[in-house]
Design brief:
The complex is a heterodimer of chains A (149) and B (182).
Chain A: H1 2-7, H2 23-35, H3 43-55, H4 59-73, H5 78-91, E1 92-96, E2 101-102, H6 106-111, H7 117-129, E3 141-145
Antiparallel strand pairs in A: 1-2, 1-3
Helix pairs in contact in A: 2-3, 2-5, 3-4, 4-5
Chain B: H1 2-9, E1 17-22, E2 25-30, H2 33-63, H3 69-96, H4 105-111, H5 124-151, H6 155-179
Antiparallel strand pairs in B: 1-2
The chains are: A mainly alpha (149), B mainly alpha (182).
Amino acid sequence: MFVANASHLGKLGGVHTIKTGDWRRDAARIVEELFHATPSSSWDSLLELRQLLLSGSDWARALDVFLSCREQLEADHYLPFYRLRRLLAASLRLEAGLCGLDTGSMENLLQGRHKSLSDLKRRVRREWFEHSTEVCGKVALHVVERTRF
Amino acid sequence: MLATGSLFFGTGALHGSRNGVIDGVMTTTAVTKTESSAVTKNLKTLLADSYSLMGQTHLAHWNVEGPSFFQLHVAFQSQYEELFTAIDDVAERLRALDVFSPGGLAALAKLSSISEMESGPAPAKDFVAHLIDSHEILVANAHSLREAAGASNDLETQDLAIGRIRVHQKTLWMLRSFLKNL
């Protein structure tokens, strides 16, 4: 039924101008709009992405599915994936190690052409820890939601 | 006469006027403060959004790179030049309604909800996508102006809003067309 609801969002105002104040709901709405414009072979992934965004239970998996969907669909649907990228970059961060070191701009990371979260993590480890043979590959990286104060 | 003068020139409770014809004579009656304040508030938002959008378009004109550079660089210039003229019209409409116009980067930034793109390298399509988002915000707010002006029978301001909506819808069509993967 969310597909039928998404259709009323309309082309004039655009999804971007209809914000709920909850970034996860806004992101889920963007995903919903993709259903009527994408092949059915992509719907399982989009459904999973939508569910992960709304539940907020596994951000690593959410980011991984987003990157995978983007790899498949962005060429034909640049605007929705740009908006999703902006929302995710503003709302999530990649932390390293036990102390939760912020590994920097998620915006820059997501601008890169990463096909999966593993790919993205490899880049971060290379940039941050390549000079330390002791820690390279051993530092855990976690995707967490940014806390808003 | 003094009372009539204050109707036209005062900046107190009366901000605008409604024209009517009685027995062939043009008369003016004051609009309510609530009605005119909604119009002026929305006009200020349109001014701020237009100014902000002009700045973002100018930024895109400067910083866009890639195979589409020349066409986008020229297109963005055409868009910000159009906005420059339009901003003047909006501000002068406020003055015609006897309201002082806000101005300056800081003041207008506070009135606009259009976000700013960071300075730095970005895919050309990101510039286009950002401008689409910005135009959509402006159009949504301009619709509020159109409604407020209609409700207060300020047809001139409504006409201005409609004209701006038309221009931005056309720009949106062109920007969206660029993003299509054909």
